[in-house]
Design goal:
By secondary structure, the chain is of the alpha+beta class. The protein is built from 9 helices and 9 strands. It has helices spanning about 5-30, 35-70, 75-80, 85-105, 115-125, 145-160, 180-190, 205-210, 245-260; strands at about 110, 130-135, 165-170, 195-200, 220, 225-230, 240, 265-270, 270-275. The chain has a 9-stranded mixed β-sheet with strand order 1-7-6-5-2-3-4-8-9, sandwiched between helices. The termini are far apart.
Length: about 280
């Protein structure tokens, strides 16, 4: 038991004894029974009231002390680091944590690469209506294990009747490459509504999604309620997810801009090509 707690308990007993003593004095010495009862009752109420007030003050003090230590935990930890190199590394870690917290404040959950594609697979399995995606298409990109498993979740969504529309981003000269054609043919034959957009026809993204950096043009919308996006400049985290309605609306707008510049495609023999005479279109 702390000294403060002992003093509180002693104060209660002192207040009780003082009130009782006065009541006894009025009753036995002054023979004023009515006043004795009143003094005794008031003394009991005062002792109880002051006890409850002190308890409330002590609880608030403990809560404030705990909050103070929590809010100053990092500064205290930094103050205990004496090695300059270790201190520099600590500041670097704190800067990264601040960036992550900023994302969380904006309604985004940062994800590493495995978490990103695992989350995409989970959202594909939960989709009930439509998946809309914009993906970069480079040789070997879609052969990575995480993407293969993510694509299997897409196929399961198709089996449930979910519509998938995917716009591939590529350079004009890449369209004829065999590996690129293999990916396009595979997804086209799996009944995914695919289109292509050339990098030199992509819209500017600063105003579209509210950030100054260039977009990675690698994002997806699941039933227009959740969006996932790959960072243009990956660092500790590969991408992010948000279900915040305002942020999801930004990605819907960006998707519409990209789709407006996209080309419909068709199968010509064993290759995918822009539809003859087709102009960039939007649904």
């Amino acid at each position: 038991m702390t000294m403060g707690k002992k003093i509180q308990e002693m104060a209660v007993w002192i207040e009780f004894l003082v009130g009782s003593g006065l009541a006894i004095f009025f009753h036995l010495v002054l023979h004023y029974e009515q006043a004795a009862y009143v003094i005794f009752g008031i003394g009991i109420l005062l002792a109880l009231g002051t006890y409850l007030i002190r308890e409330d003050i002590e609880k608030n003090r403990a809560h404030l002390v705990e909050q103070y230590h929590q809010s100053h935990e990092i500064p205290f930890a930094l103050a205990s680091i004496t090695d300059p190199e270790c201190l520099a590394k600590a500041h670097e870690l704190i800067a990264g944590a601040k960036r992550s917290i900023t994302l969380l404040q904006q309604g985004y959950i940062p994800l590493d690469e495995n978490e990103f594609y695992l989350e995409g697979a989970r959202l594909s399995d939960q989709a009930v209506r439509e998946i809309r995606a914009v993906d970069p298409l480079t040789a070997g990109y879609w052969t990575r294990g995480a993407l293969v498993n993510f694509y299997q979740a897409n196929l399961r969504a198709l089996d449930r009747g979910v519509r998938i529309r995917r716009i591939f981003v590529l350079n004009r000269e890449e369209l004829a490459e065999p590996e690129i054609q293999k990916v396009l043919l595979g997804q086209y034959r799996d009944d995914i509504d695919i289109r292509i957009v050339y990098r030199d026809e992509l819209p500017a993204t600063g105003d579209a999604i509210g950030r100054d950096t260039n977009s990675s043009f690698d994002f997806a919308l699941y039933d227009d309620r959740v969006a996932t996006d790959v960072f243009a400049h990956p660092g500790k985290y590969y991408g992010r997810k948000t279900g915040h309605p305002v942020e999801v609306a930004k990605y819907r707008h960006l998707y519409d801009l990209i789709e407006h510049s996209a080309h419909a495609v068709c199968e010509e023999g064993d290759r995918i090509a822009p539809s003859a005479g087709a102009m960039p279109l939007a649904s």
